Automatic annotation (TrEMBL):
GO biological process: glutaminyl-tRNA aminoacylation; glutamyl-tRNA aminoacylation
UniProt-annotated location(s): Cytoplasm
Organism: Undibacterium parvum
Name of the gene: glnS
EC class name: ligase
The protein's name: Glutamine--tRNA ligase
């Protein structure tokens, strides 16, 4: 891999290493984590966080934990745990290494979270509040006005402790009581106005079942998870910057209570990935799936990892993309074409070439001997002769692209039209003589004559100078395929931007299904195998629908960036 470009996080880590911040305590210098909540599918934004956290661990010989932040039982499920693990692995990362299997679940720490809550109450750093939800909201104040202390704030620690134990025992309904940190109801930082740390939820948890009916709040659980796992650098997106004082508060109080030793984790924020033409909000992605706009979470138009994988993106191209966009502390938009560029750069040197005729039209070489075939060939890869040749026969009847013929050529059109000569790529030069039409005037076949001494690679071919060069496959040996031409899901560059109705911005041409004819060798293509279809772009055999004898190909991206031009 290319040497990593420095960024503000690497600078922080370099300094921590120079100062021996963690080494002095006998700890590894870098332990990061990727902490998804198992409540949905990962998307390209998560890929940035995965590449960042696992990438830092790799580059600094530390480790990265995969931790499921499963503290919110209603929305979580094993299905999401499974797909997230699968997606992280597919991206090329592993939580299992020389130092063990670093797969963690926040739900495994429920006892510890609870013990810390009891400690905080005993130490008068927390209390049970019994206000109604409405009173609590009203007394919280807002950005323009300070909050007001709850009438329950000064209740005896022993009373709060008793209530917490009874909350845990299931004596109350959801919402009757809540545990809050005792900080400052007048703080300009809303997150410090006695934030909730535990609440009642009579909900079944996908791992702990019905063992608990109280669950910790994210802002309380998250710092504790980090501290329990000895995370050194806890990296999150910028919107959590205002949560950092509470993150530190929780860990400091718990450390005072003897739950953790110094040095403790620190939180650092970076700018989330915003990609043009893409929505990454889970709610919006779910709506696309549930309303049938796409075929599922793994629809190749979806920005989910399972979607971009099925679309044909490679893990290498996603990693290169995340490296290229870098890590900063200021929000911005990344152009979708950057992602496509990374795919092209990855596939161009690797992908075998192939011929695919999309939207086929028949070409008949009238002077070609009936029943005869002549073998033609071209390299599997133009820059890698050692990868050998593809072989395909030419014969009297061929399939060409409908676009490669015009009965009345427009200005600058060099391909087939009556009287014009073109080269059939890797084959012969032909001269167009006309076309056949059906009763409605639709062109159903094009006619031409060929020059027998013009075959590519032979001496005679040099005598023919033509401007047009078109691709073709023989009717007799062509392999029929379904080709799915995918494009951006939205027509607007910022469908996710405030106020916009993203459902009104769907690209009606985001999927076009066409019949295609492929060169015969393509019958051996395996699901997930990628090719460059000459003149068309990069394609992958669909990992779900493509089967031997009935291939289905997805267009990953065109050869050149043609969007918005
Ligand atoms: P939710 O709305 O459910 O909280 P989420 O996108 O935050 O959704 P998480 O499962 O909490 O999902 O995310 C796991 C990690 O991925 C978090 O550390 C989060 O910061 C990071 N992440 C999520 N979206 C992006 C993004 N667009 N760019 C970079 N990192 C992201
Ligand atoms: Mg989440
Ligand atoms: Mg989140």
């Amino acid at each position: 891999a290319a040497p990593a470009v420095s960024n503000f996080l690497r600078a922080i880590i370099d300094k921590d290493i120079a100062d021996a911040t963690y080494a002095r305590a006998g700890m590894p210098s870098v332990i990061t984590r990727f902490p998804p909540e198992p409540n949905g599918y990962l998307h390209i934004g998560h890929a940035k966080s995965i590449c960042l956290n696992f990438g830092l661990a790799r580059d600094y010989a530390g480790r990265c934990h995969l931790r499921f932040d499963d503290t919110n039982p209603e929305k979580e499920d094993q299905e999401y745990v499974d797909t997230i693990m699968d997606s992280v692995k597919w991206l090329g990362f592993d939580w299992e290494g020389a130092t063990g299997n670093h797969l963690y679940f926040a739900s495994d720490y429920f006892d510890k979270f609870y013990a810390i809550a009891e400690y905080l109450i005993t130490a008068e750093h927390a209390y049970v509040d019994s206000q109604s939800a409405e009173d609590m909201a009203a007394n919280r104040g807002d950005f323009s006005k300070p909050g007001v202390n709850s009438p329950f704030r000064e209740r005896a620690a022993s009373e709060s402790l008793d209530l917490l134990r009874r909350m845990k025992a299931g004596e109350f309904q959801g919402g009757e009581h809540i545990v809050r940190a005792k900080i400052d109801m007048t703080s300009p930082n809303m997150n410090l106005r006695d934030p909730a740390i535990y609440r009642i939820r009579h909900a079944h948890h996908h791992r702990t079942g019905d063992a608990w009916c109280i669950y910790p709040m994210y802002d309380f659980a998250h710092p504790l998870e980090d501290a329990i796992e000895n995370i050194t650098h806890s990296i999150c997106t910028l919107e959590f910057q205002d949560h950092r004082p509470f993150y530190d508060w929780v860990i400091e109080r718990a450390a005072e209570g003897g739950f953790f030793q110094q040095p403790v984790p620190h939180q650092y924020e970076f700018a989330r990935l915003n990609l043009t033409y893409v929505v990454t909000s889970k709610r919006k992605l779910r709506q696309l799936v549930e309303e049938g706009i796409v075929s599922g979470w793994d629809d190749p138009r979806m920005p989910t990892i399972v979607g971009i994988r099925r679309r044909g993106y490679t893990p290498e191209s996603i990693q290169a993309f995340c490296e290229r966009i870098g890590v900063t502390r200021s929000d911005g938009w990344i152009d979708y074409s950057t992602l496509e560029g990374c795919l092209r750069e990855d596939l161009d040197p690797k992908a075998p070439r192939a011929t695919a005729v999309l939207r086929p039209l028949k070409l008949i070489i009238d002077n070609f001997p009936e029943g005869e075939t002549v073998e033609c060939s071209s390299p599997v890869h133009p820059h890698h002769p050692e990868r050998g040749l593809r072989l395909f026969p030419i014969s009297k009847e061929l399939w060409i692209e409908a676009d490669d013929f015009m009965e009345e050529p427009s200005k600058g059109y060099f391909r087939l039209y009556p009287g014009n000569k073109v080269r059939l790529r890797y084959g012969y030069v032909v001269e167009c003589t006309g076309c056949d039409k059906d009763e409605n005037g639709n062109i159903i076949a094009v006619h031409c004559n060929y020059f027998a001494d013009s075959k590519s690679g032979t001496e005679g071919s040099a005598n023919y100078k033509v401007k047009g060069n078109i691709h073709w496959v023989s009717v007799a040996t062509a392999l029929e395929a379904e080709v799915r031409l995918y494009d951006r899901l939205f027509t607007d560059a910022n469908p996710d931007a405030g106020g916009k109705d993203f459902m009104a911005l769907l690209n009606p041409n985001a999927l076009e299904v066409v019949k295609a004819y492929l060169e015969p060798g393509m019958s051996a293509a395996l699901p997930d195998e990628r090719f460059q279809f000459e003149r068309h772009g990069y394609f992958v055999a669909d990992r779900v629908d493509s089967v031997a004898g009935k291939p289905v190909f997805n267009r990953v991206t065109t050869l050149k960036d043609s969007w918005g031009k």
